[in-house]
Design goal:
Structural class: alpha/beta
Shape: globular
Radius of gyration: 26 Å
Mean pLDDT: 91
Number of helices: 14
Distance between the termini: 39 Å
Amino acid sequence: MTFSVQHAEIHFNQNHIPVSDQFDDVYFSNENGLAETDYVFLQGNQLWERWISHNEANFIIAETGFGTGLNFFAVTQLFREFRQQHENHPLKRLNFISFEKYPLKITALSQAHLAYPQFEDLSVHLQRYWPSLILGCHRIHFGETTLDLWFGDVSENLPQLGDYMNERIDAWFLDGFAPSKNPEMWNDDLYNLMFRFTKPNGSFATFTAASAVRKGLESAGFNVTKRKGFGKKRECLSGLKIESKSTELSTPWYLAQPAKMEKQDVAIIGGGVASLCTTISLVKRGAKVTIYCEDDALALNASGNKQGAFYPQLSDDNGLTVDFYLHAFSYGRQLLDWAIAQNIAFEHEFCGVALCAYNEKSAVKLTKISQLGLPNEIFQMLNAEQLSKKVGLPLNCEGGWIEQGAWLAPRQFVQNAFSFLEKQGAIIKTSQKITALSQQENGWELENTQGQKYCHEVVILANGYKITDFVQTEKLPLYPIRGQVSQIPTSENLLKLKSVLCYDGYLTPADQLKTSHCIGASHVRDNVDRHFSEQEQQENQQKLDRKSGSAGMP
């Protein structure tokens, strides 16, 4: 299993332009990189003119070769200027998909950005969320613009867009290193996938005019035009997808289609973290959202703990699980930072998470995880002395350390974030147990226990194990798990705990009032009881005493 990518090896030439050591080629023109971007890609795709006539809410651009992000900065700034001048235009959002085989180190990225101070705000934001060197897609939000930054070889990543992206991309920036320097990228597979994913009348632009590239794009189906090149270059290419090719592909029933977002009426059943995250995403995109929570307040079930650990759930034998959690962890940190920036109050601490090798099985698992080659900020193995220093308490076992891990107060986070979203237009209905769903001509009808009925275009189920309560979902192979988290008073010794401590359970540092900790959790399958269990309280304490491997606790 491979999850990491290699960073770019570069140097800066006498003109302070970054040069790739892997490809022996400059990242952008020695003459004027920004002017080249404007001429070749922005004008080459006629973006401003096309935006004016665009009648959809989104415009999608795909790029081969993210490099320093100069193209992304330029088009984002241009789009913001467009939105300022056309506030009432139907086009609201820009989606930018970019592929980069060798990402720059953050230090090199920062140095390259010094040449363009006009993009300082974008540069600072990109550098703050510059991903770890993890293979795959990393989504970063820039207000009205969303960047999907794919790390790894474009030949492996581009096909992963799948049938969902068939004929959805409006424009391409074909901007890898020169074909003579990087022949592996410029090939028929790339051109054919480009054509498949491009909308009818969608476009591409590229700095090169190499005959092999022109012939490849024409063979794929593009109508290719030569333009005058930038600066000293004689020619460059641009083109259109005039006609679609017939295809046998069809969208499978289980591939959900995107919500129309703008003013779409969406109901979400559930009042916890899943419901909150979905609501945030929809509200940002202009949807009308109504929450139906069966309890008399939000976040009273699995999302109702006083303290919860925040870290990726890594596996030693399931690559798909590792891949999912690595990207979810990175994206989740962005969400927390967004909430903090909105002054949404919730207790939290970015303190790191320690995974104790408390027995032979856990030690073997952590050793295997350490061999996945993950970046140190994601996971590293430490000996007992090193781990003890991180944790703040003496441990007699080695373990894994997740530097970017944290704890937060889930109930506070959910309730206060929903209060913020109410001010943005979200509607929250508590004490509303929805018992039946029925599909109507224009959406769905929801019925509660009192027989009241509500109609919405779209229904999203985010109600945990109760997702199987409906006729439409009753056959899903899911089962409930009861997990009781215990809150314990602090002590002089436990106040020394500086990080989340995971063993066959977990222990959080003291809350912000320095009065209590959370330990947990029990794990009882097929049990939906929500009452306090003295037995599980004792078992949580016994697990901590028996398996943490710590001396002198509590």
